[in-house]
Amino acid sequence: MTVRVRFAPSPTGYLHIGGARTAMYNYLFAKAMGGKYVLRIEDTDTERSERRYEEAQIEDLKWLDLQHHEGPDVGGDYGPYRQSERLHIYKEYTEKLLKEKKAYRCFCSEELLEEKKKIAEEKGLPPHYDGTCRHLSDAEVADKMAKGIPSVVRCITPKKAYTFTDKVRGEVTFPEDMVGDFVIVRANDIPVYNFAVVIDDMTMKISHVIRAEEHLNNTLRQLILYEAYNAAPPTFCHVSLLIGQDRQKLSKRHGATSVRLYQEQNYLPSAMLNYLLQLGWSHPEEKDIFDIHTLGTMFNLDRFTKSAAIYDIVKLNHINGEHLRLLPTEKLISEVERILPADHPFHKMDAEWKARCVTLSKEKMNFYSDIIPLLKLYFDCEVSTEADYVEARSWETTPQIQAYLKGEIEKAKAAGKKFVTEAEYNEWSNHVKGELKIKGKQLFMGIRAVLTLQAHGSDLKFIVPLTPIEVLEKRINM
Predict the structure, then answer these.
(1) Residues 245-268: pLDDT tens digits?
(2) Would you say 49 and 43 are in contact if contact means Cβ atoms under 8 Å apart?
(3) Which parts of 77-193 are beta strand (E)?
């Protein structure tokens, strides 16, 4: 059997990160099994669906590098891949159920249905449709149709329990009488979600349905429909929900929820996927940082957890930093240049300087923008107001250090040097220690105070050689 899976978003907004996780699971399973990953657009909600959202979702999936084999933008053998373009298929399958008396037309008005529901509740009965129209003769149905009385199509629900085995939940049983005869086609001839999904999955030969736990209850109606068509249902895999730190379903109050927003905030797609995969699935080698595209057959449906996955933005940020540090230096430089203002002095530095700078800075970066405050170490002359800096400036040894270093910087500038070397900085430090007899805290903090105007920071032997001589000159005179 060829594995065929699908991701079926509704184009009513931008791609949700929960949807991205579902898409990723389907993509990885198809890749591991040598199967096909299908993108299907569920756009029968004509009031809310918009083509611009479909296009945006496809763009977001491509940004994540989750490429589908079949879909509305690439075609395939089982199209159309938009539900709005499959109405003729749904009509054919609706007629089949009507002809076989497995479904019927219901002419009950909304008011009558509400009355029936109220009566059932008063009697302590399930609020199911009572089947009034199930017993209409063909002639009665034809007469009502001729008179233009609006009708829906209902599927007949057998009086039985339904059991299936879920790859995450295990054996799941729906007791008898959980649902009554349910609507599959609305009065406007638009199919309802559960009906369209079953027809699509059958005709597209979907073998496995990997989706969020919130769809679990939909499975009952879908099993009834598969049985009505004498078709074997796919293997179901209902993955855990994403929840916030407050253990409520993930929503906008927990922060950004769309992939588009994370892209705009310069998150790395590889980091997003790495993190999302860990929300409900565990790596067989217990790794935390990895490229999902290299998993191959290590990805399977047996390593999902049942418990809800807590979305932790702090952990995502950490993982983003780990992936940022894995980038080639050239890529990191280009991304830093992209986010910096056009007049930033970083752009004027040569390739060697930029490489040394980003290599040193990336250890403290989770995002490209994190380098902006770090670059102040090399270009700014802002004086610290911290107590430690004020203290260092008050020591009687600090003016001695300043006077000596001022002379050395002036000599270096006179010699035409744009930067000093690490070796030259080490000579300065050794001179202050050996000749000026300044040691310990007063040595290191004193040098830092006059060369950086700060009390704390990265190792000076790396910072000073990357600081332009003009900047060192300005600082030493302050």
Answers:
(1) 877 777 655 556 899 999 999 999
(2) yes
(3) 103-106, 152-155, 162-166, 170-174, 182-185
